[in-house]
Design a protein that fits this description.
The protein has 150 residues and is mainly α. Helices cover 61% and strands 7% of the residues. The chain has six helices and two strands; from the N terminus they run ααααββαα.
């Protein structure tokens, strides 16, 4: 790695521009690291949420739509792909005949663990320039902004 600094153009100094550039960089690194696992970042987040929700009786696609801030057709596509890979299965919702609950398979639980390990490793490398205190502050600030704007 070279020691010269890259000058950031003035137009990238807004929060939105910097966060967008960071998101693009993180997405690319996540995508490359997840190739071996054969799932996308969003599928991994969905799968992880399904694994966590299993303790509470499963989750529905509508909850995942809200969690990920994506459209129902996008969640349906991801859900079908996870199901085709044998990572999740669906069960009719006993409380709402119009919906189904999602549950992980054993392979899905394992893939979720591997997904989390990969993502944490990539994120740790990306944010290695920050102190632990800076990382926690950034997480808290970003979580606060996301929650306030849902």
């Amino acid at each position: 790695m070279s020691n010269h600094k890259i000058l950031i153009p003035e137009f990238e100094q807004t929060f939105g521009d910097l966060l967008s550039a960071l998101n693009n960089m993180i997405s690319k690194k996540h995508r490359l690291a997840l190739r071996e696992l054969d799932i996308t970042s969003l599928q991994g987040i969905e799968l992880s949420f399904i694994v966590e929700s299993e303790k509470n009786g499963g989750t529905s696609q509508s909850v995942i739509c809200e969690l990920l801030s994506v459209t129902p057709p996008a969640v349906l596509k991801m859900t079908l792909e996870l199901e085709e890979k044998g990572l999740i299965y669906r069960v009719d919702n006993p409380n709402d005949k119009r919906s189904q609950l999602l549950f992980p398979t054993e392979e899905g639980r394992q893939a979720s663990r591997e997904f989390r390990e990969i993502i944490v490793d990539v994120d740790n490398r990306i944010f290695s320039v920050c102190t632990e205190e800076e990382k926690m502050n950034l997480i808290n600030i970003l979580a606060k902004v996301v929650q306030a704007n849902r």
